[in-house]
Amino acid sequence: MDISLNKYISDTGFCSRREADKFIGECRVTINGEDANKGNRVKEGDIVKIDGESLKKKMTPVYLVLNKPKGITCTTDTKDKTNIIDFVNFKSRIFPIGRLDKPSEGLIFLTNDGDIVNKILRAGNGHEKEYVVTVDKKMDADFINNMRNGVRIMGTITNKCFVKQETDTRFRIILTQGLNRQIRRMCEALGFHVTSLKRIRIMNITISGLAPGKWRYFTSAEMDAVQEMLKYSSKTADGDGMGE
Fold first, then answer.
1. Of 150, 159, 155, 152, which Cα lies nearest the Cα of 123?
2. How many CB atoms lie within 10 A of CB 23?
3. Residue 30 is part of which domain span?
4. pLDDT band at 93, cuts 50/70/90?
5. In 10 A of CB 115, how many CB atoms?
6. Beta strand pairing status for 170-175 and 162-165?
7. Among 101, 115, 136, 238, which one carries the catalytic annotation?
8. Is the dihedral of CA 10, 89, 82, 240 positive or negative?
9. Residue 223 half-sphere exposure, CB side, CA atoms within 13 Å?
10. How many structural domains compose the chain?
11. CA 182, CA 179: separation in Å to the nearest integer?
12. Do β-strands 48-50 and 95-97 pair in parallel, antiparallel, or remain unpaired?
């Protein structure tokens, strides 16, 4: 065995590679008692610890679907009293795939499988995320057309996407991008403020029948379909493709 340190940590199910890099950068990781650095590799027999705790072998993979309520923060930092990990209170260590803003609600995945995290998060893999969004004033045709065809935010223009108006103030949008706070930023750039944002679908999985604050395991059919979708996905994350 000779693999990169962040992949070794991810493969144990402790966290994603991105989180592993953060732990390494914060000097919380050691290899054989020595402080680790990004780029270190792990060989057979090496002892890797995080915060002085030895990493255990990979646990049975866990894949959860949560209907996140408003007010819960998608962080593993337990110092944050609203963190998603304490809210779910699962029996073993898990972490969220991507994020939903604290004021947002809806579908989010949690897992202990760092490999699937990297595949899903890679923005270039183009996995669909569907949202229902309410804004603070009546929309017009220009707003819908601009949202569909691209809005300039964060120094770029967003990709074309599906947008359907449902009421004067509510629309449905399907993204394959995952820029930070993308929908909120798009609306703000057009002079609108988001008052409610709910993610209702990621790829083939929806929150249908799942009450706010409740979670369930992936079904075997859902897991099979996700694995099929990810078959040709790169494992290397190049950006968080599961933002909103």
1. 159
2. 18
3. 2-54
4. confident
5. 18
6. antiparallel
7. 101
8. positive
9. 11
10. 2
11. 5
12. unpaired
pLDDT tens sequence across 187-214: 999 999 999 999 999 989 999 999 999 9
Q: How many CA atoms lie within 13 A of 122 on its CB side?
A: 16
Task: Tell me if residue 101 is catalytic.
Answer: yes
Q: What is the pLDDT of residues 15-31, one digit of tens each?
A: 888 889 999 999 999 99
Residues 146 and 109: their CA atoms lie apart, in Å, by: 30
Cα 172 to Cα 156: distance, rounded to the nearest angstrom: 22
> Among all chains, which residue has been given the structure tokens 């809806």?
106
Alpha-carbon gap, residue 108 to 5, rounded angstroms: 27
What is d(CA 198, CA 100) in angstroms, rounded to the nearest whole number? 9
Which CATH number characterizes residue 144's domain? Answer: 3.30.2350.10
Q: At what angle do helices 114-121 and 17-25 cross, to 10 degrees?
A: 100
Following DSSP, what letter does each residue of 34-73 receive, concatenated? EEP-TT-EEETT--EEETTEEPPPPPPP-EEEEEEPTT-B
| Residue 162: strand pairing partners | 174
- Within its chain, how far is the Cα of 228 from the centroid? 19
Residue 28: which CATH number?
3.10.290.10
Element (H, E) at 83: none
Say how far apart CA 112 and CA 64 lie, in whole Å.
10
